[in-house]
Amino acid sequence: MNNAAMLEKCRRFADQVIPELQGTTYYILDSDALNNESAYTHDELVGWAAQAANVSELLPRYLGADWRGPGPAIFLNLTWLRRHAYPGQFERAVLGVEVHELGHLAFPLRMPGERTPRVASAIAELQDAVVRYSLNPVNLAKPANDEGHDWKWIRRTCHLYVRAAFRGYSLPHLRLLHSGYCDFASQDYLPQLLEEALRMREEPMEAIDALPPLQWLVEQYEADVERLMAEIDDEHPCGVV
Q: Domain boundaries in the chain?
């Protein structure tokens, strides 16, 4: 499957697991095709999400006639995924990353003081800013600074994974909740959220976000954050990454 066909499959997949996306403006794009100016290697970023405000002035110059107006965007590094996926597993690998990023689509990663860049290499600069932010363990491990990977995102992403499975997709889950230093074990969350996710599989994502906190979920998340911070302190005792 070539990249264009893969991206079209990604869009159909997104519409299936989040039906309210149908008819709205959003983008799923090949990050490698959009720029090769990033200072970061492909190993460090196989997928990322951006708010509409961050890309609404950037994408028209890259998309031309394919620009459909402002909307959030998911960028997938198809070159890296094709190169590193197990033989015959490229599609599963891409859709597995997409589930993780779809969890951000309505609430993408936010960076303090962010603005819409206007320079020619803006996509690369925005990508680099996301990576710098994501690789900083202080931002990753503190929910107040990293709304993008908090327990609400975990809940949302697990729901999306279950929806995909219910619709017949068999996707990898071991790194479903992995991001930089934040390596949340999916097996600690998916089984406990299964019944809720199945029951709400036709509900809009807003209904999931509106649910009250689950005590076990918050406690598991906070314990994981404490563990991650301890591991970071052991590896970088002087706070230098």
A: 3-235
